[in-house]
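Explain this one:

_____
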Amino acid sequence: MMRALVAAAGEGEVAVLPQTSDGLLSDATVMEFFRARVPVYVDDAERLLAGHQFGPDVWDVRTRSLSAGELRRLVLAVLVNSPARVLVLDEPTNFLDFDALDVVEEALRRYRGTVLTVTHDEFFAGAVGYSRRWHVVGGAVVQS
């Protein structure tokens, strides 16, 4: 479903946070990974990464060396700072500690586009301020 949504919307309009890290682990550094996806100057990238708990000591670390939580945080930092107008997040709270959750919640509250999130974490959905919720009940999708 996510791939179909991205394909229908067009390049750059929709950004997706997958549940898996397939294809994300590489020899690219944190800074290289971020700047390849977010078109900003180095100083701005440093500031944005610091806001997502990535200080100077991590900018040169290879993404293949990151923990699952760090990688998730990095991809979320990319998504909320990307030019995409729609974010599709599949279980965004997976692998995040409480400090990272606070950062992600704040970033999503400030995001000015559309966010579609699949989550089992009702506290997170409330903290982010989602105004519409759907549930799968008896094989049907219902709004609550």
Summary: The chain has a mean pLDDT of 88.
